[in-house]
Amino acid sequence: MTTIFGSLNTALRALQTMQRAVQTTSHNISNASTPGYSRQRVLFSTNDPYTAPTVLRDVSAGQVGTGVQASAIRRYRSGFLDSQIRNEMWTTKSWDVRLDTLRQIEVALNEPSETALNSQMSTFWASWQNLAATPDSAAARARVAETAGEIAASFRDTHRQLTDLQTDLDHRITGQVDTINGLAYRIAELNQKITYVDAVGQQPNDLRDERDKLLTDLSAMINVRVFETDNCAVTVSLGGKLLVMDHVVSELAAVPDDTNQLQNKVVWANTGKTVIVGQVRLEGGLSALAPERLGGKLGGALVARDLVIADKMTMLDEMANTLIGAVNGLHQTGYGLNNATGGAMTASPVPGTVDGFSLVVPWAGQTGLAAGDFAVEIRDNNNVLEFRLVDAAGNPVAINDATTPDPDQTVTAGWQALSLVQGTTFDTGRGVAVDFGTATDHAVLTPNTNSNVTGFSTGGVLSNLTELTSGRYYVEVNGGNQFRVVMDDGAGGTLPVDVLDAAAGNGSTTTGWQNITPSSTFDTGRGIAFTFGAGPAFTATYLNDGGATPQPANIRYDARNVQVGSLNNGAATVAFGNFFSGFGAGSIALSDYISADFNRIATAAGPDSPGDGSVALQMYQLSQATLMNGGTATIQDYYRAEIGSLGQETRHADIMSENHSLLIDHLTTRQEEISGVSIDEESVYLVEYQRTYQAAARVMTTVDEMLEKVINGMGLVGR
User: How far is CA 147 from CA 120, 155, 201, 238, 413, in A?
Assistant: First the structure.
């Protein structure tokens, strides 16, 4: 049954509930400017009434209510809008990075201006025109050298700026990976707290706000997918693999990529495997799909570093190499005032392997080699001889692909089989021909084996070693299960042979005794390999021991007599005194050969012709030669088209960045309409809760007065 104290309790519930509502409203007002905060509202519901009358309860007109209660504190936020904002966020941030990169590229190229490449190229060609009119003028020659130095310096400086920008983006990638890991750990920590609070029946509203903000920050770094589980935790997926699951994090790491000039690639720290996002591997050789599939600051940095900047650097390299090749190729045909040819080639061949070098006309569409040092490297690749051409820094140079007919003009910078060119004068297509010597393949003949050595075979030759000469070789074994190699000196004796030191394992050699490994093949590293028997007992076999032991295993070896050599060890070399030196935009320069004496600038078609400027005139005419884009554009036309394309790319990136930013603003506004705090609205609610609180207090005062009457005003009769 209801009592007067029941009314007092009903009023108490009203006071407590309104107090909770005022606290929540105060919390909203305090966080009206807090980023990511979602407004909250106390949900009211009636408290359970007194139950219906029964046999043991008084009959009354109906159930009597017991007041109000705070059933929940609701958080107003749209998960759908959050998802849309995250999706747009990674797209916007990616475009922002690309736009910033393109603008910095525009600054580096500095077009149009009097000090930029286009203007300097015009000045360079004009200097040749002036020299053609006065080929014996020292001032005109100095002007050609000066403008050449300026244009080369501009190429190098622009290349350096782009390289620095690429390096900066690479450093950013490392920092962005660290940021992603930090956000992932914080999200995992909040997952743990939220699941605990939810498990005890409370609403972790503020924790959810913080987690949602972190998820938005994470989506600004890379395109992730977010899923909420039944226990209120979120799972974060990156490229189909879980970055965050409950309170567990799979870390990322930025590590040097040996396929991409040691620039960073992104891997999973626990496995070392490359991260894949949208079927794009976050490593060197970035897929062409990357601009459409990678998002966030990290995705944008990878695209900008490996595609946007790399494309502009390739453009500069193509221009520089075309300029080098065209000028050097023509310069080689002329003569300077000193009657020297414009090429001035010097060579150091390796007779029998590379017998010499000669100057030839570069192929159409290919650039002649610049001034500098080059080497023909030869290696033994699993017993197959291969060759390639490298510059002074060891960088491979693209030359004629010997597997295709010359008219196809296909070039490659890779290793090629030496057998394709041996005994021929091989035109590299780059203004020089290599006269390769003839050689037969090496072979093992008349092998004699025993229980110690059960077989012989031809082996590879290491680049730091020389091939064995033709002759007979013996494998001696002593009583300590050791071996060594000796050769017949042709005079009844033997000489020790340097072979690989198996114990050292570092490519060094020894003539001493080495331990035998049964049932194994030992490669000497110098053209011969032999196989040991199973053992364990080995018969000692020596030469010249008076017949006390059997004849040692031996073989007749016919050598190839080809020098296997690398850049700094045994390779044939050639040097050019051309007009330009270097290779690509990063190293192009006026050659030391020309800098030392401007009279070496070739202007005449023949010797003893100081007034002949025909070659200089042809140099000027190169300004109108269609050397780029497969013979459809001049160097400057090609450059101007690339500058125009850069402007279009920048404008497109600006539009895309602005459009997606506007969309994010729109979605954020819609989210604010739902979750944002209105001070005016909160003030109205505050007045409402205050008045309700006052009214409940008034009820409590009334009940108190009733109790006063009952306690102090009743029961006085008869006193």
Answer: 7, 12, 79, 52, 31
Asked whether 67 and 9 are in contact (CB, 8 A), the reply is yes
SS3 content of the chain, % helix, strand, coil (to 5): 40, 25, 35
- Residue 593 near residue 577, CB atoms below 8 Å: yes
In contact, 25 and 73? CB cutoff 8 Å: no
With tokens 């000497």, the residue in question is 524
Tell me the pLDDT tens digit for each residue of 103-128. Answer: 999 999 888 888 889 999 999 999 99
Query: Parallel, antiparallel, or unpaired: how do β-strands 372-381 and 572-576 relate?
Result: antiparallel
Residue 249: what residue type? V
Residue type at 327? V
34: Cβ contacts below 8 Å, ≥ 6 apart: none
Alpha-carbon gap, residue 437 to 387, rounded angstroms: 13
| Distance from C-alpha of 218 to C-alpha of 188, rounded to nearest angstrom | 13
Band of pLDDT at residue 718, cut at 50, 70 and 90: low
Which of 627, 602, 634 lies closest to 617 in space, CA to CA?
Answer: 602
High-pLDDT (> 90) share of the chain, %: 44
> What share of the chain in percent tops pLDDT 70?
96
Is the Cβ–Cβ distance between 577 and 338 less than 8 Å?
Answer: no
Neighbouring residues of 692: CB distance < 8 A, sequence distance ≥ 6: 14, 18
Give tens-digit pLDDT for 592-619.
888 889 999 999 988 888 888 999 999 9
Residues near 295 by beta carbon (within 8 Å), at least 6 away in sequence: 90, 91, 93, 94, 219, 222, 223
Query: For residue 466, what are its two tokens?
Result: 């020389």
> 177 pLDDT band (50/70/90 cuts)?
very high
**CA separation for the pair 8, 42 (Å, rounded):** 23
Nearest CA among 458, 422, 416 for reference residue 437: 422
Q: What is the pLDDT of residues 489-513, one digit of tens each?
A: 888 888 999 999 998 888 889 999 9
SS3 567: coil
d(CA 162, CA 584): 14
SS3 167: helix
Calculate mean pLDDT across residues 668-684: 84
Q: CA–CA separation, 476 vs 471, rounded Å?
A: 16
3-state secondary structure at position 243: strand
Q: H or E segment at 380?
A: strand 372-381
* Local structure of residue 420 (DSSP, 8 states): G
CA separation for the pair 555, 533 (Å, rounded):
16
